[in-house]
Design goal:
single chain; about 350 residues; alpha/beta; Udp-n-acetylmuramoylalanyl-d-glutamate--2,6- Diaminopimelate Ligase, Chain: A, domain 1; 3 domains; 11-stranded parallel β-sheet; 5 helices; about 15% helix; about 30% strand
């Protein structure tokens, strides 16, 4: 549990203390509306200003230019940018509470595995033959790191992650609990009424600063590599198929699915449950709203699309107005066709 004085926290984030007792202890971080004794919170969004006059938090981080209209019960820590300061404090808290370097006696490390400096490996984790773990990595309990895996510095691997053999992981990557990196791609060939498995002999490459969400799966390539480029962030419960390439700094929300051999550009944004068909190409900067279904390539950069098949959002909204009236429109059209037929027949 965090336990620092208000004055120490102000020192960490470069702030100044105003009011209250600078020696008061802080034990937890909290939201301003749910403040409690021993808690530290922040005020950045003006719509939350009323809470500062009633919060029970012990201290609040505020901007230098904050002017109180009523008495504030909490101690204030004034900084140049309260949101940025609180984010730095969250990072400090996260680092403070993560396990310290050391290898559990209950972990298995293959004799020829190479373990860097200041590494943490938790109980019941397995580091297989020929694996290389970079300096400062943290591997929580019950993880599997397969043979010949290469993991560079300062990666964070949460419990239950499975990393298949020959995977390459760059610096500063985060793999959330239950992620599976390098399982077989979905490759089967029809054979006399059944399906014959196609061996998947490629691997997965995660470049630097990639984050993979909980229970997300990135399949290895049939041949070559499935590649997740630098800075990509994948949410929980995402499926990335074999031989997919996801471009730099692209982000995807939960339950998105990308079929095999698709190439996704840089700086794309996919909402939840987006589905992309195989062998497609998605241009740089494309934004796909939640539940968008993409049956083929999108070659226009920075396109914003929604629906299945994907449409411009303005077109989609106008179409929705007609969708709900479709039955009535069909009835009216049938009546018009009937009347037109009667006119043509001379009745």
């Amino acid at each position: 549990m965090l336990s620092f004085s208000i004055s120490k926290i102000a020192e960490i984030i470069g702030g100044t203390v105003e009011g209250g007792d600078p020696a008061s202890p802080i034990h937890t971080l909290c939201k301003i509306e749910d403040g409690h004794e021993g808690g530290l919170t922040f005020l950045a969004n003006p719509k939350y200003t009323p809470y500062i006059y009633e919060t029970k938090a012990t201290a609040v981080i505020v901007n230098q230019d904050f002017v109180a209209e009523h008495p504030v019960p909490a101690t204030l820590i004034r900084v140049a940018n309260s949101y940025e300061a609180f984010a730095r404090l969250l990072a400090f808290y996260n680092e403070y509470t993560t396990p310290k370097p050391g290898i559990s006696d209950l972990a298995f490390i293959a004799p020829d595995a190479k373990i860097g400096k200041d590494v943490y490996i938790g109980a019941f984790s397995v580091i297989d033959a020929g694996a290389q773990i970079g300096d400062g990595c943290k591997i929580y309990p019950q993880c599997y790191v397969g043979n010949q895996v290469e993991m560079k510095e300062n990666c964070l691997i949460y419990p239950g992650v499975k990393i298949y053999p020959h995977t390459r992981i760059g610096k500063g990557c985060i793999l959330q609990a239950g992620a599976v990196i390098g399982a077989d791609g979905f490759g089967f060939a029809p054979n006399n009424g059944s399906y014959e498995k196609i061996p998947q002999i490629g691997n997965v490459i995660l470049e630097d600063n990639v984050e993979i969400g909980a229970n997300t799966c990135v399949d290895k390539a049939t041949m070559g590599s499935t590649i997740i480029r630098e800075g990509v962030k994948l949410d929980n419960l995402i499926q990335i198929g074999h031989n997919v390439v996801v471009g730099k700094n692209t982000v995807m929300a939960s339950q998105a699915g990308v079929a095999g051999s698709t190439k996704i550009g840089e700086n794309c944004m996919f909402g939840g449950q987006v589905g992309v068909a195989g062998h497609s190409t998605i241009a740089n900067g494309v934004t796909l709203a939640a539940q968008t279904g993409v049956p083929g390539s999108i070659r226009k950069e920075n396109a914003v699309l929604i629906g299945a098949p994907p449409l411009d959002p303005a077109v989609f909204r106008r179409s929705c107005v007609h969708f709900k009236n479709l039955d009535a429109i069909v009835e009216r059209l049938a009546q018009v066709e009937k009347e037109l037929a009667e006119l043509k027949s001379g009745r």
